[in-house]
């Protein structure tokens, strides 16, 4: 292979990107050395097994990916701003919309959601960590290896260009001969395995590690949503694993699953992809539902309306989410029976979702509402998500779908679902739980300005796409002629996209500002909230709970505050903690290399990396690591310091 | 020696061999497809449950409700994937 | 570490009991994984292109031996756990050893079967049917191979440390895995081979 094939060449923008990647990496290396932070980075972050730190790393990675995917989005919007733009050529445009989709769903939404789960769940159920802390670190580094592998395709080898759904035959070796789609199959595979392990870890954590007295029906709604989400992860991700493996076999080893000859069936890819893909939508949306439930209840000063119906509707969504996938390809040629069946199940899923919307509204009713930043996101979510949901029911009707299938109408619909349903959710959660981890709140004024820029920008960017879609503009077309009349609405959408981008810049600036200027010492419970995590000091000590709380009611902390029932009793005891380990990080590097070598079909180094993986698993099996203990005295000293001797 | 071979395990083993032999019958008996597939399905499902209950001790801890629920959900998803795929890709395809 | 004496050794600490529970959930995911592979196989099984079909390819003899070996190894694996619960190290090691040997025998037959297929010109690249067959059988075979390495590692640990809560826990989880592979094989035996030859 020639160097000119290995690196992506001939694109000034990509040369610019290469230079900036090299410069940024150098700056990081030099900075770490200059400030003597290598040891700190290794000890405190790269080897950590603490769920809070792993959660923070997930969220940082997700924010970086949000900007990578966001720049893709701005490039697309710039190209479409006016007819016949020459900003991107067709191939480059294909690559950009593909990476935008993959990154936003799998490397932004997923890690953001998982990051918040990591930070919050053990605290919310009164546990000291997740069930398998080491496995949790492995999950993170697998995700990170996958994300880096995917992003490197930008400069080495070429990005995938067959859409985020990578439909065959377009994604086959015959029609996509570059290594781009190899990156797709391997990067997603590696991070997908990490996600699967997260799923198992959190199911065990939630089912087995709750504080005494916290029955299932006393769990906070976010915990419920995460439990159900992880059940979906565990049963849906294996389907993706298989689909991606078959794709890899087709592209690298010449098998005939999705080919056009020798009996291959290209449509089978679309089928398998969506058997996973539709549950995936709920994997990123359900946790946000949980976050909104907690936030709306906290800032209305009321308990959640219809707790049981919330749980039941999420269970219904979980089961239905596995029964609707064919609505993604109504026009592929299936018979009326198939399309009819999937139309009905799809419309049925709107019912439990509607129940949830009404429950949130009734929680707000007659509440003492305070409009904090997290609450604003929740308030913005309800109407916007409803628009997304209603257009979803329009798309669910198979015969009508033939009119607007794969048009901008669809693009507008899923952004109207995923941005309020996931992005608003995780941003609300981030603002809400930020003080728990860092000990101070993000600035409210900046937070609210960011919110207004984001919500206005979002609607200006995506509302026009509904109309463009109904006028016949298809998705993924890289340009259009003036005679189509798509120009003005596209220009409006582009302006909206840039407003949205400014909103995100303000949001990140808020971190910087708050780190420097936010008032500290606001105590463990700045929002006057309801669930267990707020009963700990902020920032939370490494062991989370000095004494294990005892739960008597839903909203345990609120109950304890209002009825003056102590959550904690008894003496401090010594606490058992897991040791840090560098193995997960190293395993991540090995996985990255394994994937990279397979992408280029360099089998001998790939086999070596496979053997190294097996050796590392064996190493782990033979290792005897019993962790360490924090003595009762030390716990007491820490607690007294953090709580200012008040407890 | 005898206590190394508990009756439950031995019975389970013999029973699974017998079930495999019955399933093997479909190759030799002259059956129509439906009957053959029915025999195969019934034998396989019984054998799988036998492994679960006798050898894997699924019911021995206080978690058994969660464990059964886990298997039921997994089988639900599996069955939906298999029959749903056949339904959309073959049986219901124009 | 709190030890609960009312439960078998492998569940005795909270961490160990969580591990068993977590592994069950992993097996749930494995059910979904193999179901997907079966879905692919059932969709593609008569799309043989220019290659041979199942009934032309399958040899009952080897398959019966494979089935017998795997069923018996599942039985001995169960006996190993039973011996472990009686705290009898030597019988446990013998039963585990037998289990792994039979697993190896199974792999030997499967590999020679694959070699025969390839020599007959039936490869992964020949047709959609063969691709799905090789990947379904190969995934199961890979699981058995990993199980063999894993089991061997656990035997070494028992030899070194005896039957402790930790090794007992690992052995029990391994036994769950091994029985599960047998369950998967039952379905392959029935719905790939027997149905193919029907």
Automatic annotation (TrEMBL), chain A:
Keywords: Cell membrane, Copper, Electron transport, Heme, Hydrogen ion transport, Ion transport, Iron, Membrane, Metal-binding, Oxidoreductase, Respiratory chain, Translocase, Transmembrane, Transmembrane helix, Transport
Membrane topology: Multi-pass membrane protein
Catalysed reactions listed for this entry: 4 Fe(II)-[cytochrome c] + O2 + 8 H(+)(in) = 4 Fe(III)-[cytochrome c] + 2 H2O + 4 H(+)(out); 2 a quinol + O2 = 2 a quinone + 2 H2O
Pathway in which this enzyme or protein is active: Energy metabolism; oxidative phosphorylation
Domain Cytochrome oxidase subunit I profile, chain residue ranges per copy: 36-552
Gene Ontology biological process terms in this record: electron transport coupled proton transport; oxidative phosphorylation; respiratory electron transport chain
Keyword Metal-binding part of the UniProt annotation: yes
Record keyword Transport present: yes
Pfam families to which the protein is assigned, alphabetical: COX1
Entry protein name: Quinol oxidase subunit 1
Automatic annotation (TrEMBL), chain B:
Membrane topology: Multi-pass membrane protein
Predominant subcellular localization, coarse grouping: membrane
Organism domain of life: Bacteria
EC class: oxidoreductase
Pfam families: COX4_pro
Biological process, per Gene Ontology: aerobic electron transport chain; ATP synthesis coupled electron transport; electron transport coupled proton transport
Key words of the record: Cell membrane, Membrane, Oxidoreductase, Transmembrane, Transmembrane helix
Transmembrane segments: 12-29, 35-55, 67-93
Keyword presence, NADP: no
Function statement: Catalyzes quinol oxidation with the concomitant reduction of oxygen to water.
Protein name according to UniProt: Quinol oxidase subunit 4
Organism: Paenibacillus pini JCM 16418
Top-level taxonomy: Bacteria, Bacillati, Bacillota, Bacilli, Bacillales
From TrEMBL, chain C:
Enzyme nomenclature, EC number: 1.10.3.-
Location in or out of the cell: Cell membrane
Domain Heme-copper oxidase subunit III family profile: 1-197
Catalytic reaction annotation: 2 a quinol + O2 = 2 a quinone + 2 H2O
Transmembrane segments: 21-42, 62-81, 93-109, 129-151, 172-194
UniProt membrane topology term: Multi-pass membrane protein
GO molecular function, one term: oxidoreductase activity
Keywords from the named record: Cell membrane, Membrane, Oxidoreductase, Transmembrane, Transmembrane helix
SUPFAM superfamilies assigned to the protein according to its UniProt record, in alphabetical order: Cytochrome c oxidase subunit III-like
Cellular component, GO annotation: plasma membrane
GO biological process, one term: ATP synthesis coupled electron transport
Family affiliation: Belongs to the cytochrome c oxidase subunit 3 family.
Functional summary from the UniProt entry: Catalyzes quinol oxidation with the concomitant reduction of oxygen to water.
Protein name: Quinol oxidase subunit 3
UniProt lineage: Bacteria, Bacillati, Bacillota, Bacilli, Bacillales
